[in-house]
């Protein structure tokens, strides 16, 4: 009896949370739509700035009434959720609780939600066009300004070939070491980061939240920033590059691995659990055999990404071929840049062929 | 550990279930107030439409899912009160056979059979897949019993459905269980192959006295193999009886007014 009351209180609490969640999502979506609408209004109003020129994207963004529109968004979201019987299910409600039975068969044109989504998508494209300052005219008519670079790239110069090759080897090993050191760490972290394995105890759920948060944070920081951190830590050179790519690879591989674990067939896990096996044995027999082939192909793909990324890492002093590429880009030595770019392209192409072969063999 | 909390019921039942109820986290009620006693050496068939709670009932017995109400005893141990190592110890004596076989598809057949011995294996050696010679011999013997000793080195997913289910039976045997739970063991097999699997389960029940609880939806199979029947409808036990007592009336009661028995069931 007590348990039942407790579970009812729990259900009420959850319901409240779900309602709050759906109103929150609606408020954000409606505010975004209103902001984009105002942005488009301002942009096409013909207003001019102080200089007499048409308003730039930044000017327009400055003119938006964020606070008022946010407030309107909240009010409209509340309204939609209160009168959802007459207005139809709101997008937030549909996301949180699903679309109710009687609305499923309706065409999108028959629901407010459908029109909302359609207008939202339209506005996103228009606003995106304005904000990113798309300029079709320049794109189509001003190619000649870039012709030098393209000509240089097409006529590679042999003078950096030797140095380039040496640093290319360093690049490949740099990427390899970063990937290789990332595998065991990501492998271990992937299990606590998989939702389907961490539903049980409080400890498991805490481990999930902790590792997910940590990995999302690490992944959000660009490898370039990691490189700067490690360059001041261990000094300029390839080791800093290895560390930067390692940290980023651990986070990326953990995410890919754990998503793979989340999509396994749980049948074998059940079967191994039923034999009286312990947690580690269940993972070893019920999970690992299913995820090894995709893990391998992710890992090879990651190595490939690391080879490409290490070029940029080299720009800031993290070793590898980027180290000599940067000054040549700055000086406009397009022939030499062309050679180096070709070397990188060949490597990536070769690695792609090799990884395809390996994947064929394993899977 | 359990004995300290609740007095152990004096009963020779293999499985005793009291007031079992299960509500899934989404709010779906799968079982309601199920009381059941399964005697040692019985072959109990569970009947019912899909969604009537057969799978959930079987999965509650070895705690693959945790029931929300009620208690279950297996050979006197209250499994619903056990955790960790004690729970795993009881699970070792309860083998399970699944509709989808649930073999480790990328492992060899022999490794799949050996996985039945995980409950009593050393942690490190089992993680490295190095089982002792004695276990390997036992696994071979169990494979031979289901007639698949020549396929020991094949990958599990290279076998046909019927063969895979026989490997699953061998894996169950490897546990040296006292109780076998079988969840629609032949439902995904070709009708012609059903008896090839059911015969092995029957032999364990008849020759070695293992208790079997098996959900089935084919009335033919029920009549032929079960010693007792229990029918579920909407998560409740609606009928209990012996194979001979199962008639058209009962059929309607379990499967609903609209259901028709297949023409070859004999009534």
Give a brief rundown of this model.
With 363 residues, chain A is mainly alpha-helical.
Index terms:
heterodimer; A: 363 residues; mainly alpha; MetI-like fold; flat; B: 267 residues; alpha/beta; six-stranded mixed β-sheet
SSE layout and pairings?
The complex is a heterodimer of chains A (363) and B (267).
Chain A: H1 2-43, H2 57-63, H3 66-82, H4 84-87, H5 91-97, H6 112-131, H7 136-141, H8 147-154, H9 161-190, H10 202-220, H11 223-234, H12 238-262, H13 267-274, H14 279-315, H15 322-331, H16 334-362
Helix pairs in contact in A: 1-3, 1-5, 1-6, 8-16, 9-12, 9-14, 9-16, 10-12, 11-12, 12-14, 13-14, 14-15, 14-16, 15-16
Chain B: H1 2-5, E1 13-23, E2 29-39, E3 43-47, H2 54-61, E4 69-74, E5 77-78, H3 84-92, E6 94-97, H4 109-114, H5 123-127, H6 133-145, H7 161-174, E7 179-183, H8 194-208, E8 211-215, H9 219-225, E9 228-233, E10 236-241, H10 248-255
Parallel strand pairs in B: 3-8, 3-9, 6-7, 7-8
Antiparallel strand pairs in B: 1-2, 1-4, 4-5, 9-10
């Amino acid at each position: 009896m007590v348990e039942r009351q407790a579970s009812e209180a729990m259900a009420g609490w959850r319901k409240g949370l779900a309602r709050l969640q759906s109103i929150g999502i609606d408020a954000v979506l409606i505010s975004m739509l209103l902001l984009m609408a105002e942005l488009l209004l301002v942009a096409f109003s013909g207003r001019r700035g102080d200089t007499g020129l048409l308003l730039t994207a930044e000017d327009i963004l400055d003119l938006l009434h964020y606070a008022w529109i946010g407030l309107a968004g909240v009010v409209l979201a509340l309204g939609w959720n209160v009168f959802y019987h007459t207005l139809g299910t709101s997008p937030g409600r549909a996301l949180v609780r699903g679309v109710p039975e009687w609305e499923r068969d309706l065409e999108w044109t028959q629901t407010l939600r459908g029109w909302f989504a359609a207008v939202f998508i339209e506005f996103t494209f228009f606003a995106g066009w304005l904000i990113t300052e798309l300029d079709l005219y320049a794109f189509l008519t001003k190619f000649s300004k870039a012709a030098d670079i393209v000509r240089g790239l097409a006529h590679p110069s042999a003078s950096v070939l030797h140095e380039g090759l040496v640093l290319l080897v360093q690049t490949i090993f740099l990427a390899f070491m970063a990937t290789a050191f990332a595998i065991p760490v990501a492998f271990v972290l992937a299990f606590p980061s998989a939702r389907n394995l961490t539903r049980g105890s409080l400890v498991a759920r805490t481990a999930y939240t902790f590792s997910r948060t940590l990995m999302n944070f690490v992944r959000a920081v660009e490898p370039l920033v990691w490189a700067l951190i490690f360059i001041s830590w261990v000094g300029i050179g390839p080791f800093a590059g290895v560390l930067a790519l390692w940290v980023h690879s651990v986070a990326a591989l953990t995410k890919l691995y754990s998503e793979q674990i989340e999509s396994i067939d749980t049948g074998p896990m059940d079967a191994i659990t039923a034999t009286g096996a312990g947690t580690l044995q269940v993972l070893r027999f019920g999970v690992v055999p299913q995820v090894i082939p995709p893990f391998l192909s992710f890992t090879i793909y990651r190595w490939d990404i690391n080879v490409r990324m290490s070029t940029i890492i080299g720009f800031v002093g993290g070793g590898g071929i980027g180290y000599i590429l940067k000054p040549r880009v700055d000086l406009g030595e397009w022939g030499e840049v062309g050679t180096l770019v070709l070397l990188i392209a060949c490597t990536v192409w070769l690695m792609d062929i090799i990884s395809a072969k390996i994947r064929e063999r394993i899977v | 550990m359990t004995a300290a909390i609740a007095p152990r019921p004096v009963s020779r039942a293999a499985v005793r279930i009291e007031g079992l109820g299960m509500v899934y986290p989404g709010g779906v009620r799968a079982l309601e107030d199920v009381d059941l006693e399964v005697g040692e050496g019985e072959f109990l068939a569970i009947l019912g439409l899909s969604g009537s709670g057969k799978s959930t009932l079987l999965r509650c017995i070895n705690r693959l899912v945790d029931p929300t109400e009620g208690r279950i005893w297996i050979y006197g141990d209250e499994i619903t009160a056990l955790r960790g190592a004690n729970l795993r110890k009881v699970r070792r004596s309860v083998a399970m056979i699944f509709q989808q076989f649930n073999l480790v598809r990328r492992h060899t057949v022999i490794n799949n059979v050996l996985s039945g011995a995980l409950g009593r294996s050393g942690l490190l050696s089992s993680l490295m897949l190095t089982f002792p010679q004695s276990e390997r011999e036992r696994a071979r013997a169990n494979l031979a019993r289901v007639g698949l000793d020549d396929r020991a080195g094949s990958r599990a997913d290279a076998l046909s459905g019927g063969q895979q289910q026989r490997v699953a039976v061998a894996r169950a045997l490897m546990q040296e269980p006292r109780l076998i739970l079988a969840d629609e063991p032949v439902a995904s097999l070709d009708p012609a192959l059903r008896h090839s699997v059911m015969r092995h389960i029957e032999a364990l029940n008849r020759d070695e006295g293992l208790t079997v609880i098996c959900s089935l939806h084919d009335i033919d199979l029920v009549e032929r193999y079960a010693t007792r029947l229990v029918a579920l409808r909407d998560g409740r036990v609606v009928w209990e009886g012996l194979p001979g007592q199962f008639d058209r009336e009962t059929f309607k009661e379990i499967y609903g007014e609209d259901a028709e028995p297949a023409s070859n069931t004999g009534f």
